[in-house]
Amino acid sequence: MLYACWRQTARDHHDRLAFRDLRDGATWTFGQLDSLVEAGSGHGAAVAFPQGHTARFVIDVLLAWKQNVVVCPLEHAQPAPALGKLPPTIAHLKITSATTGPARVIAFTAAQLKADVDNIVATMGLRPEWPNLGVISLAHSYGFSNLITPLLLHGIPLILAPSPLPEVIRQAAREHGDLTVPAVPALWRSWHDAGAIPAQIRLAISAGAPLSVPLEQAIFEAAGQKIHNFYGASECGGIAYDDSPEPRADGACAGRPMKHVGLSRSAEGCLEVRGGAVAETYWPEPDPSLGGGCFRTSDLVDLEQGRVLLRGRLTDQLNIAGRKISPDPIERTLLLHPGVRECLVFGVPDADAGRADLMVACVAANPSVTSETLKQHALESLPAWQVPRKWIFVESLPVNERGKLSRAEWRRRVEGMKG
User: Fold this and answer.
1) Consecutive 10-residue averages of pLDDT for the chain (419 residues)
2) Can you give the CATH number for the domain in which 384 is found?
3) What is the pLDDT, as a whole number, of residue 355?
């Protein structure tokens, strides 16, 4: 199915630019890429593991589709998982980012993979005239669904950047004009700080981590660019998208549901996603949270007036003196302070309070910002019991190659400091 769809894409866009690698300037039209793959052959294994950030990744995916081989993209230097014998209906595997627990393998049919990109193109309005600039990982669910499948199944050209450095972004804009740029908040911040967000960006997308309202507003004021927040999950692809022309006023707003995606709220207050893009199952161990066209997330939400409002994650909730609180609204409050660039709030066991948590805030801020400054700022809009008790100031909060911050990793670091 997927290879037949690619062949139709190649015919429809035969002489148009399909792919360019800014590293060496190599280019392929859709027709040239099609001829290259038609003449090639794969390695004959049951699963293909495309890897890296070059044209080879794209070619390996197409060769796997041609041979009806399952595709399991890997990050740079990531080992291949042990998979065993897969069901014959499975065409694609994703490995979760493991920000909230151990990494898991998610299995998709071809129809489910295609449904996700169809929803993305229809909701975001991706256009062949606005090539995608590839600065994010091709292997991650976000990059595969916003860069690879739009190229291969909808004819959206891909300009592959060798790095996300500001000068590379400027070069791409100079040479290609109108662009679509899917990125993560950390990249949008670095480009904003460097004054490197070009006017030629026609569609600016941010996903992979929460996009703060102050950053969104600052970019809009400085560069005239509206950054569109995109919310999704590896298990079901795109969930919600902010298509508004101006910055959001509420950082909890993830946007409106993607086209052809149904959303509801469970009795616990968690989001449930239904639609043709929801994965088949976790592999090799199924889980009741995924299957039958439904993904039951651990994301706490409100669904109001057609908008998705994120209220934190059930598994991230803190137990503060017998009361439950999500770290998300506390983080959003701290980010409203003009001296705060990044922050992450989480709990560690409180030795003085039995089973309760000690609320910790890791903050990257200007040198003039102190813990007392932030306490007073937080008390302007939060009750005292929701203000962090422990403050850790850092130069930055590094994200992984998927643009994500791991609360679990930072929690381990802080517990290590206590030891």
Assistant:
1) 97 97 94 95 86 95 96 92 93 78 85 98 97 96 97 98 95 94 95 95 94 95 97 97 96 96 96 98 95 96 95 86 86 93 88 72 94 96 93 86 73 72
2) 3.30.300.30
3) 58
Of 265, 287, 312, the position where a domain reaches its end is: 312
Same domain, 148 and 25: yes
N residues, the chain: 419
Q: Is-above-0.70 flag for pTM?
A: yes
- pLDDT at residue 249 in the model: 93
**Termini Cα distance of the chain:** 55
Written in H, E and C, the secondary structure of the chain is: CHHHHHHHHHHHCCCCEEEEECCCCCEEEHHHHHHHHHHCCCCCCCEECCECCCHHHHHHHHHHHHCCCEECCECCCCCCCCCCCCCCCCCEEEECCCCCCCCCEEEECHHHHHHHHHHHHHHHCCCCCCCEEECCCCCCHHHHHHHHHHHHHHCCCEEECCCCCHHHHHHHHHHHCCEEEEECHHHHHHHHHCCCCCCCEEEEEECCCCCCHHHHHHHHHHHCCCEEEEEEECCCEEEEECCCCCCCCCCCEEEEECCCCEEEECCCCEEEEECCCCCCEEECCCECCEECCEEEEEEEEEEECCEEEEEEEHHHCEEECCEEECHHHHHHHHHCCCCEEEEEEEEEECCCCCCCEEEEEEEEECCCCCHHHHHHHHHCCCCHHHCCCEEEECCCCCCCCCCCCCHHHHHHHHHHHHC
Dihedral angle over CA of 88, 90, 92, 98, nearest 10: -120
CATH number at residue 127: 3.40.50.12780
Residue 280 shares a structural domain with residue 322: no
Domain containing 405: what range?
317-418
Q: Please say which residue of 312, 339, 354 terminates a domain.
A: 312
